[in-house]
Structures are given as structure tokens and as C-alpha cells.
Amino acid sequence: MRDLQRAWLARARESQVISGADEFLLSIETSHTSVGPWLHVRLGPAFDISGLGLDWYQPEFVASDLARQACMAVFTDEDEYWIFTSRTDPETGHTPTPTDDHV
Predict the structure, then answer these.
(1) Spatial separation of the C-alpha atoms in residues 60 and 15, rounded to whole Å
(2) Which has the least CB within 10 A, 20, 49, 66, 76?
(3) Backbone torsion region of residue 72, taken as left when φ is above 0, otherwise alpha when ψ lies between -120 and 50, otherwise beta
(4) What is the top-level taxon of the source organism (predicted)?
(5) Side-chain half-sphere of 39: how many Cα atoms within 13 Å?
(6) 57 neighbors 74 (Cβ within 8 angstroms)
(7) Measured distance between the N- and C-terminal CA atoms of the chain, rounded to whole angstroms
(8) DSSP 82-99
């Protein structure tokens, strides 16, 4: 889970999902088919991804910047974690194919 946290935080900051004020939107999977409501989140100094109440074996969630132009999703496949990132062009509305990282 620590590797996932480091990778997620780095990618979230790089893709500007996390604002300069350390804020973002978060939705945690509530079933195997959907995500739950969006929560406005601010990172604290001791942020720990495991504190989201996620199962260590299936930590699946979606995060977005406050304007909902950048989005990240974390999925699991057996014992591997995948982070997908996508950004919508604010002028054209075009969203290219998400990029992915294997953790």
C-alpha cells in the first residue's frame, strides 16, 4: 500500500488533480460496479491512503481536481495496482485516452 500511496501522490500532483491548497474531489467505490458520492477532500500533513477505509487488497477509488478537468482512477488486478489518469482539454472538451501506470 505504501508504494501505491507514493505513486498516487506523485501522479496526482503531477497531473494537477491535487490543487495548490492540497484539495481534490474523491469518490470511493461502493460496489463492484459504481463509485460513491464525490467528497471534497484536503490533504493533511500525515495523509495516508490506507486511512480512506479501503481494503488493502482492493483499494479502488477515483479522484478529480475541483474543476473536474483532471481525473485519476485506482484499480486492482489480483495483487497489482493500476493508476489511470485523464485530462479534459478545457477549450475543446476533448479527453484523450487515459495514461496508465502499473504499481
Answers:
(1) 19
(2) 20
(3) beta
(4) Bacteria
(5) 12
(6) no
(7) 10
(8) EEEEEE--TTT---PPPE
Residues in the chain: 103
Written as one letter, the residue type at 94 is H
Sign of CA dihedral 95, 89, 28, 39: negative
Q: Which triple of cell numbers denotes residue 72?
A: 485519476
Q: Which one, of 68, 8, 58, 64, lies nearest residue 41 by Cα?
A: 64
Task: Assess whether pLDDT exceeds 60 at residue 69.
Answer: yes
Q: 9-42: per-residue pLDDT in tens?
A: 999 999 999 999 999 999 886 666 566 788 899 9
Which pLDDT does position 54 carry in this prediction?
A: 62
Ramachandran sector of residue 91 (left: φ over 0; alpha: ψ -120 to 50; beta: rest): alpha
What average pLDDT is seen over the chain? 80
